[in-house]
Design brief:
The chain crosses the membrane at residues 25-55, 86-106, 113-131, 137-160, 172-194, 206-225, 339-360, 367-387, 407-429, 441-464, 476-494. With 548 residues, the chain is an all-alpha fold. 69% of the residues lie in helices and 2% in strands. The protein has a two-stranded antiparallel ribbon. The chain binds beta-D-glucopyranose. Beta-D-glucopyranose (BGC) binds at residues 42, 178, 181-182, 185, 313, 318-319, 322, 349, 422, 449, 453.
Length: 548
């Protein structure tokens, strides 16, 4: 290890991490706050696009005759489709590139400063969005810049949390990030709901401006958290890695736990580096695509699994409800207040996510992906079948029982996602990659999430618009089928990573297939495989250390 002493580890696979303390929990819980950006920033745009003041400002059309409100605007009083599409999708472009470059930056300056930079970029984007009035270019550039900041934050928070969280509760803690995403979406919906009928700039400036609060809280708070010890190990600074690890594990620096975990991190890193050496910038990117497609532990396979899993998460169809829910509920014919139903769906999302904290550690990532995916397939197909067998809008007076059944199934579908695919896709991505390519792997996977998120946002209007395919509830045949593909992807490609250290995940991937991974138990440590161990002799409760 450049610049560092040899750190000796243990042969005992159970001793490579300290017991979890409250402080270690709290650090991750704070980092999870980054999810608020993700959720809030995706949550406000749809509502703002339908605000009378915002529409008037950009179209210069006269307001419709009184009384009018955001929920009941005439069809011709709206932003043109291209403008809506540009304002919405430019965010994903920013997040896509932000997530891709963030990995590189996180390897150079560290995980923590990269997230703080993300907060600053995001705040600059918000200023551009709200400072000028009626300036489309500034608004669009602002969305792009803010998106870049969200890309930084969404990729690197996952990386940072996965690297500092204790292995026993890593899944639950990273699920906390998903919980914050859902809270962000709900908050955005509430703020937009409250301001949508104002006929001044406050209508859109308030929902956008609220976001400064998130960047101040996260950016400022992160100054007090330690850097990831795995970042310092990667840099070869053992001294700083030890201090950071001791802080995140809440242990003294010379504790056996700290020394043994550090030895594991270093031994695994040395093995990975010897396996796929990468010298320059290009070769370090190429390293993400090295190895055989048929080897579950190769870098290329992990890159495919990470990016594929995020694509699969979007293919579950969840964002159809969150992006187009309001207009879909309007088409069902019998609903008085579609905004309220949309708000209820976001509430179901928030309230069911905490169940994942428990089941992700109890049943594991792979199993809940399979169960949640199957449940989503069933729910979405039934919605489509009910919608086809009992058409509502066409029937005079509507078909309230069928609509109620559909809404109940849509809520069940959201709960299935929120307890499984929502958190598990992020948890697996954080655990999947070996340290030399981890930041890039997580960055590419996050970029894949935003890419597919954008594609779905762009094509969905064609499925449901009255002047296009006008599928109505039949659109759920499409989402049911894509959710089935997602479930099959999880079955064939996702291995069980529950309860393993990030270094043990490496061993497991090398020794099992996804289908046999659940039964795998760690049997040796990296330090012993690399011959860098101290022996431990147990003497009635005390542990004596002998240099090998
Ligand atoms: C997904 C988002 C989705 C959100 C809903 C996230 O995990 O990546 O696309 O909107 O969950 O809660």
């Amino acid at each position: 290890m450049p610049g560092g002493a040899v750190v000796l580890g243990t042969t005992d696979t159970d001793r490579i991490e300290a017991p979890v303390t409250l402080k270690t929990y709290l650090m991750c819980v704070f980092a999870a706050f980054g999810g608020i950006f993700f959720g809030y920033d995706t949550g406000w745009m749809g509502g703002v696009l339908g605000m009378p003041y915002f529409i008037q400002m950009y179209t210069h059309k006269p307001y419709p005759p009184e009384p009018f409100d955001a929920a009941h605007l005439p069809a011709d009083f709206a932003l043109p489709a291209w403008e809506k599409s540009l304002m919405t999708s430019i965010l994903s472009a920013g997040t896509f590139f932000g997530a891709l470059v963030a990995g590189d930056i996180a390897d150079v300056v560290g995980r923590r400063p990269t997230i703080i930079m993300g907060c600053v970029i995001f705040a600059v984007g918000c200023i551009l969005e709200i400072a000028p009035k009626d300036a489309l270019a500034a608004f669009v550039i602002g969305r792009l810049v803010a998106g870049g900041g969200v890309g930084f934050i969404s990729a690197i928070i996952i990386l940072y949390m996965s690297e500092i969280a204790p292995k026993k509760v890593r899944g639950a803690l990273v699920s906390g990030y998903q919980f914050c995403i859902t809270i962000g979406i709900l908050l955005a919906n509430c703020v937009v709901y409250a301001t949508q009928d104002r006929l001044d700039t406050g209508s859109y400036r308030i929902p956008i401006g609220v976001q400064f609060l998130w960047s101040i809280i996260l950016g400022f708070g992160l100054f007090f958290l330690p850097e990831s010890p795995r970042f310092w190990a990667r840099k070869g600074d053992i001294e700083k890695a030890t201090v950071a690890l001791a802080t995140v594990r809440d242990q003294p620096r010379d504790s056996d736990y700290v020394q043994d975990e550090l030895a594991e991190i270093i031994a695994n890193l040395e093995f990975e580096r010897a396996h796929i050496p990468s010298s320059g910038y290009v070769s370090s990117w190429l390293a993400c695509f090295k190895g055989s497609l048929f080897d579950g532990s190769s870098n290329v396979r992990r890159t495919i699994v990470g990016t594929g899993l995020q694509c699969a998460q979007q293919f579950t169809g969840i964002n159809f409800i969150f992006y187009f829910g309001t207009s879909f509920f309007q088409t069902l014919g019998t609903i008085d207040n579609p905004f309220l139903i949309a708000l209820i769906t976001t509430l179901v999302n928030v309230l069911s996510t905490p169940i994942s904290f428990y089941i992700i550690e109890k049943y594991g990532r792979r199993r809940i992906l399979l169960i949640g995916g199957t449940s989503m397939v069933i729910c979405q197909f039934i919605v489509a079948i009910v919608g086809t067998a009992a058409p509502h809008a066409q029937v005079p007076g509507g078909n309230p029982p069928a609509v109620k059944a559909e809404i109940a199934l849509i809520c069940l579908n959201i709960a299935s996602f929120a307890t499984t695919w929502g958190p598990a896709a992020w948890v697996v991505v954080g655990e999947l990659f070996p340290l030399p390519i981890r930041s890039r792997g997580v960055g590419m996977s996050t970029a894949s999430n935003w890419f597919w998120n954008c594609i779905i946002g762009v094509i969905t209007p064609y499925f449901v618009s009255a002047d296009k395919l006008n599928l109505g509830p039949k659109v759920f045949f499409i989402w049911g089928s894509t959710a089935m593909l997602s479930t099959l992807f999880a079955y064939f490609f996702v291995s069980e990573t529950k309860g393993l250290s990030l270094e043990q995940v490496d061993q497991m991937l090398a020794e099992t297939t996804p289908r046999t991974s659940s039964g795998w138990k760690p049997h040796t440590t990296w330090a012993s495989a690399e011959g860098k161990v101290h022996d431990k002799v147990e003497h009635e409760g005390s542990v004596e250390k002998v240099e090998a």
